[in-house]
Amino acid sequence: MGHLNATALNEKGTSVAVGAGAVWNDVYGYLDGFNLAAAGGRNGLVGVGGLLLGGGISHFSPRVGWACDGVVGYEVVLANGTLANISTTSHPDLYRALKGGGNNFGVVTRYELKTFPQGNMSVNTFSYDVSQVGAVFDAFNDVAADPNFDPYVSLQAGLLYSSAAKAWSVSASAYYTKPVLHPEVYSGFEALPSISNTSSITSVASLAAENPTPPLNWLFATLTLGTSSETMLDIFKTLNGSLYDFNPAGGVTWNFAFEPLPSVMLSKSAATGGNVLGLNPEDGNAIVLLFSALWPNSSSSDAIYQQGRDTFAAIEKVAEGKGELRKFEYLNYAGPHQTPLASYGADSLNFLRHVSKKYDPTGVFQHKVPGGFKVW
């Protein structure tokens, strides 16, 4: 698919056609020259297709919704070998299913994405001593729980633990999609004693151009929480208790990223034909947690996978005990033991199964395509 990477703006500049083999660096680098952007991955090396089929969290999501909500058309090779153009007016059921339904319905060869004006943005990064973790969570929650969520916010609070050093680091990556240094919305982070505190203005393309991730072993899982700094702190305490003395051969680095999932972001979906993620603005603001690990020594993999499953189960129990565990599992962060498509709810899952059987009655993409989460 990597050769299907052409990017072309339409005559009016309102949408951009992107080959499914492109990465987001291709898209942002192209659109930057027109002072435009499209909702897509925050790391420019992420593939366009995978991110969009799983929903897609973008720096711009509070303004325009999930990245998949910005898709106005798909070119798809169906199970019977035919090439179809999919939109709100052509196969609208398949159009909706592709917005979060994964690789269950066909081979998408091209996406047409809605564009919008976008200049430079600000990048604000904070690093803190672990003693400040509770205060960092409070500052994060003040932003994430705000019913008047600032649509220019793109925020992560991060925990990183090195098993070799037995040391935690605490950070906040506070982006703002306007060229505003030190935006007021991040004043809570600014006020805390920090190890480092930087702020700069950059282009979307420059920000996305991250270095490649080393070719190491990975573990992923995810859960969704209500907005509660108390629950976040209890999760940290559980993580620390579970991981502190675990140091396999070669070591392991654990990374935990908390991200807002504001209701304003969810309200954008209906205006673009809807998606299948099963989320409603009425549910209120929430938080998505990415639980991950990275390690060099493959001989430690079994032990790390087991430790990861046990630790993840422990923090799920904490969130559930606090009454803050939500059912939604973000597909692009989900681990192989999770069921993100089922987490969309029975109505969405039944719809996905119906669409799959309609366009792929023999189950080509269920039985002959490896990888991904299946609907059958």
From TrEMBL:
SUPFAM superfamilies: FAD-binding/transporter-associated domain-like
UniProt keyword annotations, A-Z: FAD, Flavoprotein, Oxidoreductase
Family matches, as Pfam families: FAD_binding_4 (PF01565)
Flavoprotein among keywords: yes
GO molecular-function terms, A-Z: FAD binding; oxidoreductase activity
Organism superkingdom: Eukaryota
Positions in coiled-coil regions: none
Domain annotation FAD-binding PCMH-type: ranges: 1-118
Family per record: Belongs to the oxygen-dependent FAD-linked oxidoreductase family.
Protein name: FAD-binding PCMH-type domain-containing protein
Naturally occurring in which organism (per UniProt): Trichoderma simmonsii
